[in-house]
Design brief:
The protein is mainly beta. Helices cover 9% and strands 47% of the residues. The strands form three sheets. Strands 2, 3, 7, 8, 9, 11 and 14 form a seven-stranded antiparallel beta sheet that branches. It has a five-stranded antiparallel beta sheet with strand order 1-10-6-12-13, with no helix packed on it. The chain has a two-stranded antiparallel sheet with strand order 4-5. The termini are far apart.
């Protein structure tokens, strides 16, 4: 009986891991609150995070669509950070969407996330996020990562990519 139950669970696992919702993106906003921008930021930075919403292999003959989850972690134990924008771009550099409507505060040690569902093929192999954040006080650098996964019936694929700070300014605004 236990053997039959184990086989049944193994057969059902791939079905449970599939993306079902047709929505392209979802956002975990439970740790974000609307905020005002600090008038004179102590730190103002921009972070680039590569997102692989699809991969090709076998000489470009086969493509695998992936789910991707961007997480933004405030690593400072004492100060909030303010997220100005979380923009999602496709492989050609075209802005697909800005995930935030106005600035939002991320409290100390809190994490927020954004999900690109497997069905969202708009980003392509070179999709990426560009996150602008600021803080009224000196803070530790937030950690921004994307985790990509495909859990299909014949294999499982999962990996991460880390964000890279492309611009950072102490005591002032970033120029556009």
């Amino acid at each position: 009986m236990a053997y039959q139950l184990s086989i049944l669970l193994l057969l059902c696992l791939p079905l449970a891991c599939r993306d079902r919702a047709p929505t392209a993106v979802s956002h975990n906003a439970e740790h974000l609150t609307k905020a005002e921008l600090p008038p004179e930021p102590a730190v103002h930075a921009e972070v680039y995070i590569p997102v692989y919403s699809s991969l090709t292999y076998s000489g470009g003959q086969v493509s695998v669509e992936l789910s991707a989850q961007l997480t933004i972690r405030n690593t400072d134990a004492h100060q909030p950070i303010v997220l100005e924008s979380v923009r999602y771009f496709d492989s050609s550099g075209k802005l697909l969407r800005d995930e935030l409507q106005g600035p939002h505060a991320l409290e100390p040690m809190a994490t927020t996330s954004f999900l690109v569902r497997k069905q969202d093929r708009d980003g392509g192999v070179g999709a990426n996020y560009l996150v602008r954040w600021r803080s009224a006080a000196e803070v530790t650098e937030p950690l921004m990562e994307a985790a990509m996964a495909d859990l299909s019936t014949s294999y499982a694929l999962a990996f991460t990519s880390r964000g890279v700070t492309t611009r950072r300014r102490q005591n002032g605004e970033l120029a556009d």
